Amino acid sequence: MYLSDMNVGDKAIVKKVDASENIKRRLLDIGLINGTQVECVLKSPFNDPMAYLIRGAIIAIRKNDCNKIEVEII
Q: What's the rounded Cα separation, in Å, for the pair 21 and 37?
């Protein structure tokens, strides 16, 4: 399952980040590494972008980037 498949209120653990080096570096900088817990807190009307609670901060991520982050629902 990917980050973009989550519904508001779902919590998950990051399993893999498979993005280009430029985007991957930004995602790693905000704490999206293997084992990180994320919670989907908001979806915009067209599901792009979506907001996630990551390590105490709410971060908006574009759907295109969310499709590159594998997660496991907890």
A: 22
User: pLDDT of 27-42, one tens digit each?
Assistant: 888 888 899 999 999 9
Domains of the chain: 3-73 (2.30.30.90)
Region for 73 from its dihedrals, namely left if φ exceeds 0, alpha if ψ lies in -120 to 50, beta otherwise: beta
Triad 49, 51, 57: Cα angle to 5° = 140
Dist. CA 37–CA 45, nearest whole Å: 24
Residue type for position 43: K
